Amino acid sequence: MSVGEWLITMLIMIIPIVNIVMLFIWGFGSPDKRRNYARASLIWMAISIGLIIIFYGAIFALIISTNSF
Hints:
With 69 residues, the protein is mainly alpha-helical. It has helices spanning 3-14, 16-28, 35-66. The protein has one domain.
């Protein structure tokens, strides 16, 4: 891919909802040069969301356990 194509790809990744849709299209659609990049990005997103859920769950449990009724 040329530098221009990568610049357009990065520009698309800045747009909030469009980036997720495009990652799914590039990752699981027709063969594309960005396929591995898209799949790796989706895996990192899933890992991040999982860690955030665990973190906020632990914080919520800590707050509930220290709250005296």
